[in-house]
Amino acid sequence: MATHETVDSSKTHTEEEQLKWKISIPGHAPRSDSPEYKKSRKRMHDMLATVAAPFLGPEPVEDHHGGGLWLKDADGWFMVRNLAGIEWSAQFCADPAKVDLLRQNARRVYAAYPQAVEELGIRELLDTPITDADGVAEWTDSICNASVPLPHHAHSATLPNGGGVHHYPTPITDIDLIRFADFELWVTDEKGESVAVAPVDRRGSGDARIHVLYAAQDSTLRAPLLEAQSEGRPLLLAPDHPVARAAFINQQ
Questions:
Q1: What's the rounded Cα separation, in Å, for the pair 197 and 212?
Q2: Averaged pLDDT, groups of 10, the chain, 252 residues long
Q3: pTM exceeds cut of 0.90
Q4: Which residues contact 62 (CB under 8 A, 6 or more apart)?
């Protein structure tokens, strides 16, 4: 609540806000699963059970509307990503002409994998131009978009339980998929606020400085990070900084 210092009205007085606020940002608006989405989700889990590919599984996984394109060759099913994915809630601002470019790109990819097209039953989907909201909706919930398998911690979790793509910048969440197991991507500052970091040089270089990539709103590193970004320079922390030590704690 706001408090006011009691002073003579002719003099300067102060006012301050003591009530912290929070907002809730859901993953998407309330919705009911479309028949196309239910079919895509089941198909994704069925295919996932047959693959042993890096990053894809194991179960349990959640299905991310991330533009996954499932292909099949002599070694079985595998997945690549389209130029962009469309979240369910994003379809309502999606330009059909731009979504159609995703369809065209997928169609070119699938031209080399006719067996996948046949087994997925997507010939008509790939061949039908997207010109309106119905076409956007069909593409959004199709196996060509709503089909990227991610574990909960990488999809919809929030720290400290995981850094999901629905809550944190994708260039950072992708790091979690490829980092060394003994390097801590997500650490906390002295206030316990979340910070994402990366080394500044290759493993074994002896350089233990840290590059700050992300800092939560209330982190002590938030203001320095924004200042560095506005000046076009990285925010680097010395090896003896507590955040740097926390990042390398498993390597010491």
A1: 5
A2: 41 50 51 80 86 76 90 92 91 93 98 96 97 95 92 87 86 88 95 95 93 94 95 95 96 80
A3: no
A4: 149, 150, 151, 152, 155, 156
